[in-house]
């Protein structure tokens, strides 16, 4: 074989006689000719073929070398090398490579001759290999094979100025293997061609002293051939003007490495040392060129260890302005993309490049740092130029759902090019560079931190390119990802959230979940849960979508009871729904999308009809459906599958989230009524063409649109879109929305209607997306997607069978459906009645407790659709048995409701029931609680029949139940407590109280109701004032007293929903009722406030009841206080909105006028004292009012009301003492308002005229002189002003701090705490403070200071007294009376012209309010977990205790 040609060639060859005879070349025919006498082509071809055939059979050492010299000289003649015939050239090439083989190692040619020979071979013969169908392809292959095997190509390295030939050879070979690899007939190049070409190029790289830079460009460019998108043009540091790649071809990725890629890979792996040097220089040149272009125009900046110029100036701001050009950046990206692929293919050549890349991590230019950080992440992950594999399909609508027990899918890694693959562990191969990469998490630029976050996410997803991560390293990266979730920059947080979305379901549970789930603080998934409450909407959208999608995919495993999945992701619905408390319109719209696109997808399950056979395999499964290997869906019921998802979503919700879930269903019912009015007005509007009542229609439609738009984030855009929709006047769209809202529409048709609506909007307008962004959330809200008639049958089935532990949740849903939309039960009412008839109890047989839900559903349905109830005797006999023996007692109440609403001869049956209940009534006998409940409901629904036995009924309720004590207290040391379990006697007394109250409620003559109500009011007031004690012997058990006090307060609220009974509650009784909000037990005050806010939101109570929530200034439970503050702020905002809408701004000052009532209540507060310390504490009540209510517009009115009190006397308890109390409170309020105004830089204006105050609370001071003296006198003792000023400053700081928190308002979870209280109220006095020396106050009120300008500070401070020592645990509260309570209980209602009563959110409420049986259902006391009762202390003892503690200033 040829080993090496001589370095110099001789000009003449001298012939020597051989020492021994060897056979020689026998060919003697001439191959050259004189000018003008050429050899015929046919003859020449014959001679060349003969010569080639002879030389092929000859070996190098077995023939006389000199015999080849003549032929060699002729073959190198220009006549043959430049011959025009391709055949002549092909056969000449074959002969030449044989000459080089036989004459090795000394080629019989001069340097110029060799150059001419290789020029012909490289430019003519070898490029012809691109066409396998060429007639002389065999000769071309022979030449290639000879050059590769004999290695005669090495002669090219000794030829002077051979660089162009070498460049041409490399370019041709790579182009052949990558480009024209097929002939016209489709014949493929053989593997032997690739092998020989590779061998030739390896020899050249190995033997060449240096390689031209263009050759290196060509070699490294082959590594980009795995991604056709990157092959838009030439590659290299000096190549410009690369052609753009058609984006439509981005999906045409190769499935295996192309031959050119393999050739380059072999070259690099065979000659790693040389290639490492060349590639290092290549990358260095490209990076230097790009860097120099930016540094030439960049101002001089002093370098620092962290590249920081200013703590406030991001280096990205500088770099973007004066960084590399677009062309430079394009080259840099391509170079770094090459690095990724080189690491995958031949990491050995990067030994000198990695330090350069590491240096880029510390570059001043943010673009270089970003590229380097991204490249390091991809190299560790084993991601090459072909990019990432397709992300895992996480489809929450897929069916069957996936499970952890399923075999992991390999589809994503079927493409070898995109499969992450690292040839060796990068952290071990380059530990220093890897450590530098990890430190980029602290980079000043958020761009770099975002890229770093994406990088470590890919490392985790790919397990470091398949080589695996150690447990410590994996934990380190996961903690880094969690920390990026809380980064200060939103771009970084979004990047971290998106990274979570790239994990497969198994990785989320097994990798991320192994370090904690959603509820473990510090875990990456817990950080993801925090991001759904992020301050930036873009982050919230991404986080909520990812979290909801993960839960939707995991729903199958959760339903199957896989504990690992439940512990990791099971709480996602609670986390998501809990964001509703943020009261943010953008979040609310996001919740709509997430609820019906991720948690409960519209198209789940993707099965068309029950029992439908599948066509073409999985045609009815969702595209990319995640199957578990079982595709048999022929016998599945899609409605049942969907119902299971709904129940699963509601099952594990916490109490707060559960309220939101049920509130959504209430909102659907109310908003659907509102939408129906809107659609009706749109039809009347007729696209703007009206024949009559134009002004009235337009005005009404305008108000409707205003209120609909107020529920969406961008109200102005929403308003425009709603007008545009009205002007489109698409009647089909109107009908489609009605289909979505109709309770008679099944689920399948609801979804079809939504899809058709979307299609029609898209086809009808050019701004369809903008219109859909407004309309789709509204359609989601009004559509019957959860409480649909298609789901009722399955819900009932789950309630009976309790499959997967969903029975209790099914009962809850069924109960809520019966309250909200009983019409949905039409199809199942006969089935429900049959079930009740079969389950009816009797004297010896009890009913199933689950029958209560069916009874409630049936009662709700009967109230609206009495004619559709069965009238057979057996059914009503069953209802009679429930009324007499039903357990629990609520069953009897619902049975009576069914009888009184559905039976034709109800009066007769009611009379029989009264007689049976009264006759031989005995406490403790079988069914006595049911009889009390029956009497209570009959007193409400059939008062005429019950009043015939009024004496006997009253005797039972009062003498035999209320005044008796049959249960001994279990804890003698406890005088007032709470228990989650309701004892039988306590329940009996509750029913007895309802009997008395229902008698008042059912009285139809307002003129005579006073006579009946006074004794009952006295009983209720005594229960409130005496801490629930109703027995003359004062031995009522403590747990009974708390429930009786709560029930008495709530019954008062119920009675006050009617005007004629509200007037019977005198101011003194009202003040006592208000103090229930400061009960020592959290369950009592929380339940009382919950009912109060509900009635106020429904406008069922007079405005004086708005006073009560302001007594929570010292509420120790942060959750209750925060929720109440949010509710007050919502009410204040609503009243301001109403005020803006009304023509006369003076007609709506509800929330401001309440201030006078609040000050009166404080003046009569049992803890009031005129000392400076007490007055400063009472200023907290005033601040608690001012923060959510006061604005720059109404502060003058509030101040005027405080002033007016000094022109009044107390009318509740006329006496000088209470007059002085009133004046002290008035001065305190004025002082607090002034300090509050100064803190906000507002300006109090003088109010014209006088504000009228309630005559029931105040009387005018008639004497002018006396009124003047009172007005001029300052009633505040010394030290109050300083104390109030400090208190205002503290509250303002708390407001600012609260405003900066990321957690949205109302999202904090406060623990239930018992408290040490002064007396029985949560009033706390401030600890002694060191007072500054000050001038004594004058006897006249100080003048107001006028201030202008200044920064406005948010008034959302939530404070808890620093002097409250609390303890205890959480409690749970809910019973049947709370089932219909909506979460937005603080939303007011008003009436529209059409009679619909609409609340703040545009939700329609029945004008008559709740039904009687539903109202009655709200009277049961709530079940709570036990809360420790605080030991009562006197004021002096409390003050003495505080004196030993640190001052509370600033807390």
From TrEMBL:
Keyword Cell division on entry: yes
Biased composition (Basic residues): 1442-1451
Location within or outside the cell: Nucleus
Domain of life: Eukaryota
Compositional bias (Basic and acidic residues): 1304-1315, 1327-1337
Ranges where the record places region Disordered: 1-21, 230-249, 292-324, 615-636, 1293-1451
Any one GO BP annotation for this protein: DNA repair
Chain intervals with Acidic residues compositional bias: 1374-1384, 1400-1425
Keywords: Cell cycle, Cell division, Mitosis, Nucleus
One Pfam short name: PDS5
Keyword Cell cycle listed: yes
Polar residues: compositionally biased ranges: 1-13, 615-633
Signal sequence coordinates: none
GO (cellular component) term, any one: chromatin
PANTHER family for this protein: ANDROGEN INDUCED INHIBITOR OF PROLIFERATION AS3 / PDS5-RELATED, PRECOCIOUS DISSOCIATION OF SISTERS 5, ISOFORM A
Record protein name field: Uncharacterized protein
């Amino acid at each position: 074989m040829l080993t090496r040609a001589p370095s110099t060639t001789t000009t003449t060859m001298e012939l020597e006689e051989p020492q021994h005879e060897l056979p020689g070349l026998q060919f003697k025919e001439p191959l050259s000719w004189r000018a003008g006498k050429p050899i015929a082509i046919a003859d020449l071809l014959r001679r060349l073929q003969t010569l080639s055939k002879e030389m092929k059979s000859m070996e190098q050492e077995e023939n006389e070398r000199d015999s080849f010299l003549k032929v060699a000289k002729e073959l190198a003649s220009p006549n043959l090398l430049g011959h025009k015939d391709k055949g002549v050239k092909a056969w000449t090439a074959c002969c030449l490579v044989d000459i080089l083989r036989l004459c090795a190692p000394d080629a019989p040619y001069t340097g110029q001759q060799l150059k001419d020979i290789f020029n012909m071979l490289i430019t003519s013969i070898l490029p012809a290999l691109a066409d396998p169908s060429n007639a002389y392809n065999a000769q071309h292959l022979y030449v290639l094979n000879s050059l590769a095997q004999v290695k005669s190509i090495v002669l090219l390295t000794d030829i002077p100025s051979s660089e162009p030939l070498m460049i041409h050879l490399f370019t041709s070979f790579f182009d052949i293997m990558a480009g024209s690899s097929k002939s016209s007939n489709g014949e493929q190049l053989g593997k032997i061609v690739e092998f020989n070409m590779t061998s030739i190029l390896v020899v050249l790289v190995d033997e060449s002293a240096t390689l031209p830079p263009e050759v290196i460009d060509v070699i490294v460019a082959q590594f980009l051939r795995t991604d056709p998108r990157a092959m838009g043009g030439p590659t290299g540091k000096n190549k410009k003007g690369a052609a753009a790649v058609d984006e439509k071809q981005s999906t045409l990725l190769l499935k295996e490495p192309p031959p050119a890629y393999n050739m380059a890979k072999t070259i690099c792996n065979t000659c790693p040392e040389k290639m490492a040097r060349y590639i290092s220089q290549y990358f260095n040149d490209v990076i230097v060129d790009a860097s120099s272009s930016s540094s030439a125009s960049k101002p001089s900046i002093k370098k620092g260890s962290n590249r920081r110029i200013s703590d406030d100036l991001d280096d990205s701001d500088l770099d973007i302005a004066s960084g590399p050009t677009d062309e430079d950046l394009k080259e840099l990206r391509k170079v770094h993309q090459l690095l990724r692929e080189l690491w995958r293919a031949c990491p050995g050549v990067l030994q000198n490049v990695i330090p350069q890349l590491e240096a880029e991590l510390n570059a001043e230019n943010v673009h270089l740092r970003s590229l380097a950080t991204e490249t390091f992440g991809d190299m560790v992950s084993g991601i090459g130029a072909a990019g990432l594999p397709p992300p895992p399909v996480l489809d929450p609508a897929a069916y069957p759902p996936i499970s952890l027990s399923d075999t992991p899918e390999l589809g994503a890694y079927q493409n070898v090019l995109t499969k992450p693959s690292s040839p060796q562990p990068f952290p071990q191969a380059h530990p220093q560079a890897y450590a530098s990469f990890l430190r980029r998490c602290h980079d000043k630029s958020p761009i770099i931190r975002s890229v770093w976050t994406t990088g470590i996410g890919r490392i985790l997803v790919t397990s470091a390119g398949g080589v695996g991560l150690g447990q410590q390293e994996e934990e380190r990266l996961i903690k880094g990802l969690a920390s990026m979730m809380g980064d200060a920059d939103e771009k970084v947080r979004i990047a971290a959230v998106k990274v979570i979305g790239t994990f497969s379901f198994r990785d989320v549970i097994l990798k991320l979940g192994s370090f904690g789930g959603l509820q473990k603080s510090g875990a990456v998934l817990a950080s993801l849960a925090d991001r759904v409450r992020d301050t930036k909407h873009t982050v919230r959208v991404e986080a909520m979508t990812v979290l909801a999608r993960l839960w939707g995919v995991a729903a199958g495993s959760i339903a199957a009871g896989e504990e690992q999945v439940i512990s990791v992701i099971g709480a996602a619905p609670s986390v998501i729904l809990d964001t509703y408390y943020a009261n943010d319109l953008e979040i609310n719209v996001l919740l709509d999308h997430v609820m019906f696109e991720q948690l409960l997808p519209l198209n789940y399950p993707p099965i068309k009809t029950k029992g439908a056979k599948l066509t073409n395999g999985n045609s009815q499964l969702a595209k990319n459906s995640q199957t578990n290997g079982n595709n048999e869906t022929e016998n599945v019921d899609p409605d049942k599958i969907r119902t299971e998802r709904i129940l699963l979503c509601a099952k594990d919700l916490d109490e707060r989230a559960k309220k939101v879930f049920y509130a959504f269903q209430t909102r659907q019912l109310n908003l659907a009524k509102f939408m129906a009015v809107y659609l009706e007005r749109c039809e009347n509007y007729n696209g703007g063409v009206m024949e009559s009542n134009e002004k009235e229609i337009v005005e009404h439609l305008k108000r409707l649109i205003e209120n609909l738009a107020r529920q969406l984030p961008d109200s102005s855009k929403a308003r425009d879109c709603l007008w545009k929709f009205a002007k489109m006047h698409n009647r089909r769209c109107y009908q489609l929305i009605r289909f979505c809202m109709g309770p008679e529409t099944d689920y399948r048709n609801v979804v079809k209607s939504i899809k058709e609506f979307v299609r029609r909007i898209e086809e009808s307008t050019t701004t369809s997306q903008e219109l859909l962004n407004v309309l789709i959330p509204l359609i989601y809200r009004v559509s019957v997607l959860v409480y649909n008639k298609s789901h009722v049958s399955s819900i009932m089935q789950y309630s009976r069978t309790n499959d997967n532990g969903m029975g209790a949740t099914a009962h809850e849903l069924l109960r809520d459906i019966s309250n909200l939309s009983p019409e949905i039960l039409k199809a199942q009412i006969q089935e429900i009645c049959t079930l009740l008839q079969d389950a009816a109890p009797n004297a010896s047989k009890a009913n199933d407790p689950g029958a209560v839900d069916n009874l409630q559903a049936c009662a709700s349905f009967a109230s609206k659709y009495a004619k559709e109830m069965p009238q057979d005797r057996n059914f009503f006999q069953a209802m009679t048995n429930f009324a007499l023996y039903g357990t629990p007692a609520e069953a009897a109440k619902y049975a009576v409701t069914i009888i009184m609403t559905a039976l034709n001869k109800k009066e007769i049956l009611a009379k029989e029931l009264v007689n049976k209940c009264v006759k031989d009534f005995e406490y403790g006998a079988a069914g006595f609680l049911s009889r009390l409940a029956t009497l209570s409901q009959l007193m409400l629904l059939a008062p005429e029949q019950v009043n015939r036995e009024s004496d006997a009924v009253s005797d039972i309720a009062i003498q035999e139940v209320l005044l008796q004590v049959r249960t001994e207290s279990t804890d003698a040391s406890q005088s007032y407590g709470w228990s989650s379990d309701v004892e039988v006697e306590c329940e009996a007394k509750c029913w007895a109280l309802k009997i008395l109250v229902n008698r008042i409620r059912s009285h139809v003559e307002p003129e005579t109701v006073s006579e009946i109500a006074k004794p009952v009011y006295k009983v209720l007031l005594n229960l409130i004032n005496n801490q629930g004690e109703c027995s003359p012997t004062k031995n009522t058990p403590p747990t009974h007293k708390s429930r009786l006090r709560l029930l008495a307060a709530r019954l008062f609220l119920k009675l006050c929903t009617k005007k004629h009974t509200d007037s019977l509650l005198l101011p003194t009784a009202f003040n006592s009722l208000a103090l229930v909000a400061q009960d020592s037990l959290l369950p009592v005050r929380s339940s009382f406030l919950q009912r109060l806010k509900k009635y106020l939101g429904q406008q069922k109570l007079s405005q004086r009841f708005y006073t009560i929530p302001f007594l929570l200034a010292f509420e120790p439970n942060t959750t209750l206080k925060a929720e109440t503050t949010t509710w007050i702020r919502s009410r204040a905002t609503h009243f301001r909105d109403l005020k803006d809408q009304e023509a006369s701004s003076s007609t709506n000052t509800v929330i401001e006028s309440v201030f006078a009532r609040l000050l009166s209540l404080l003046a009569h507060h049992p803890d009031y004292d005129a000392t400076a310390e007490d007055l400063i504490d009472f200023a907290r009540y005033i601040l608690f009012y001012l923060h959510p209510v006061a604005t720059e517009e109404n502060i003058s009115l509030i101040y005027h009301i405080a002033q007016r009190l000094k022109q009044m006397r107390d009318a509740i308890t006329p006496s000088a003492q209470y007059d002085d109390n009133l004046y002290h409170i008035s001065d305190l309020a004025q002082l607090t308002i002034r300090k509050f105004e100064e803190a906000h830089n507002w300006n109090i204006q003088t109010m014209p005229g006088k504000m009228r105050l309630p005559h029931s609370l105040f009387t005018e001071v008639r004497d002018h002189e006396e009124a003047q003296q009172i007005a001029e006198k300052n009633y505040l003792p010394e030290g109050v002003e300083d104390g109030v000023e400090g208190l205002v400053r503290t509250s303002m700081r708390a407001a600012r701090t609260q405003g900066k928190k990321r957690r949205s308002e109302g999202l904090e979870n406060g623990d239930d705490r018992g408290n040490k209280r002064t007396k029985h109220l949560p009033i706390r006095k401030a600890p002694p403070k060191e007072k500054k020396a000050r001038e004594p106050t004058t006897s006249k009120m100080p003048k107001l200071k006028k201030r202008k300008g200044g920064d406005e500070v948010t008034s959302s401070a939530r404070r808890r007294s620093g002097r409250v020592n609390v303890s205890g645990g959480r409690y749970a509260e809910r019973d049947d009376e709370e089932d219909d309570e909506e979460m937005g209980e603080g939303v007011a209602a008003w009436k529209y012209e059409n009679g619909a009563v609409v609340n703040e959110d545009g939700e329609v409420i029945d004008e008559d309010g709740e039904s009687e049986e539903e109202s009655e259902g709200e009277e049961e006391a709530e079940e709570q977990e036990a809360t420790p009762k605080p030991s009562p202390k006197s004021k002096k003892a409390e003050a003495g205790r505080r004196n030993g503690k640190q001052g509370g200033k600033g807390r």
